[in-house]
Amino acid sequence: MKGIGTGRLKAEHSPKYERVERERRYLLRTLPHGLALAAPHFQITDNYITGTRLRLRKARWVQTNEWTLKLTQKHTPAPPDFSRTLMTTIYLDEAEYEVLSVFEANELRKNRYPFEHEGRAYSVDVFLGDLRGLILAETDFDADEEMDAFPPPSFAFADMTRDVLFTGGSLVGLTAEDLRRELKKFATETQRHRDNR
C-alpha cells in the first residue's frame, strides 16, 4: 500500500517514544593515547535508507561475536545545532533485519571503540571504506548545561559538533576525494583563523 490515503499527516506527534540525544563530536588526527586498533570494539554497518530519516544498523561486538540489529529514526529539531537530536530506536531480530535490508540505502562502515578519558566515556569511530583515515570521537550528556560547558578533550583536533558534514547522514554520501577536499578546506580555514588571532 502506497501513500496515506485522504487527509493529512498530523503536524505534531507524541514524543513518548523519542529520546533526546545530547552529544559532542570531535575530529581526531590519530587514535587517543592508550587506544590501539586491536582493542575491543564493535564492527558497525549503517545503511541510511534513501529518502528517509531511517538508519538500519548491525553491530558486532568482535570479542564475543554477538550482534545487535536495530532500526533508528534520528533527526535534528533545530539545525545547525547537531548536538541535540531526537531518536527513536527499534531493536530487531534477524528476520526483521533481513526484510528491511531490501530497501535502497547508502552504507557507512566503521569500527567503534569504547574509550575512557579523565572519567568520561567516549566512542571512538575509525571509519572504513571510502572514509578510511577519518577518526571521530563522541561523548553523550544527560543535561544541556553540562554539554554546553564541556571543553574539548586534549586528544581532539577540533570540535565538529555543529558541522553538518560530520553527521552520519552526510558522511554516508561522501567519496574518498570529497573527504580529502573537505578536510583540506577545514584545515586551511582553521589555520587562517589561528593566524588572525
Explained architecture:
The protein is an alpha+beta fold and 197 residues long. The protein has one domain: Hypothetical Protein Pfu-838710-001 (Beta Barrel). Helices cover 19% and strands 38% of the residues. The chain has four helices and nine strands; from the N terminus they run βββββαβββαβαα. The protein has an eight-stranded antiparallel barrel with strand order 1-5-4-3-2-6-7-8. Strand 7 and strand 8 form a beta hairpin. The radius of gyration is 18 Å and the shape is globular. 15% of the residues are buried. The mean pLDDT is 91.
The backbone outline, from C-alpha atoms, is globular
Which structural class should the secondary elements be placed in? Answer: alpha+beta
Estimate the mean pLDDT confidence: 91
Order of helices and strands: EEEEEHEEEHEHH
Question: If helices are DSSP runs of H or I spanning 4 or more residues, what is the number of helices?
Answer: 4
From the alpha carbons, calculate the radius of gyration and give it in angstroms: 18 Å
Q: Can you tell me the residue ranges where pLDDT is under 50 for at least 5 consecutive residues?
A: none
> Order of strands across the widest beta sheet?
1-5-4-3-2-6-7-8
CATH class category: Mainly Beta
The CATH homologous superfamily is named Hypothetical Protein Pfu-838710-001
Helix content: 10-25%
How large a portion of the residues is in β-strands, by DSSP E? Answer: 35-45%
Give the CATH architecture: Beta Barrel
Stated plainly, the CATH topology is called Hypothetical Protein Pfu-838710-001
* Gap between N and C termini: 59 Å
Largest sheet: 8 strands, antiparallel, barrel
Number of domains: 1
Could you tell me the number of beta strands? 9
